[in-house]
Amino acid sequence: MSVMMEHGLERKFCQLEANVELVGEAGIEGYASRFGEVDQGGDLVAAGAYGASLARLASCGRAVKMLWQHDPTQPIGIWDEVREDARGLYVKGRLLTEVARAREAATLLAAGAIDGLSIGYRTVRAHKNEDGRRVLAEIDLWEVSLVTFPMLPTARVGAKAETPPATDGALWHELAEVVTDARRRLACTD
Asked: What's the predicted TM-score (pTM) here?
């Protein structure tokens, strides 16, 4: 579902389980948006939709924010890389573990309890395609959040552990790897 926020800011999320691959914890990367894929709200994003927004942000020396569950009062990290490629909007960043919520997010990522990415944006240009779906042709991107339920099920985050978690990290990391392997095998049988 796309939710309109104050000042016309939209965000994409859904209340359905998302199958997201986990690869670790601390440094994170994944696709916050995929081009041409229909999300749970029936929208799809056109290739190149983020280009103008990313260029504007760069020219102003600003960056896309990393938030927790779209909450502007809870920044949890830094996106070191946000770019479009042939597949969609790729993001790579790091959780700031000096922030309590970021430490919690790292723990949840490692355990596989959270694994979604979601965008907060304003629609600049959109049109309807032949199927009547809204095609987002140009997006003003504000933030990419770690979320429980992404609107686009393939908006996935992976994490790469640099150090094990403080509480019995080896056990949690091993458990996360088992869960990740099981998800991969199940995905291959569908």
From this structure: 0.72
User: Which range marks the domain in which residue 146 is found?
Assistant: 10-184
Which carries the bigger pLDDT value, residue 165 or residue 5? Answer: 5
Q: Is residue 3 part of a domain?
A: no
Chain centre to alpha carbon of residue 41: 16
Q: Is residue 1 part of a domain?
A: no
CA distances from 14 to 67, 80, 126, 176 (A): 17, 26, 21, 24
Q: How far apart are CA 81 and CA 61, in angstroms?
A: 14
Residue 154's closest CA among 44, 3, 10, 55?
44
Q: How many CA atoms lie within 13 A of 28 on its CB side?
A: 36
Contact 145, 76 (CB under 8 A): no
Q: Is residue 189 part of a domain?
A: no
Q: Count of domains in the chain?
A: 1
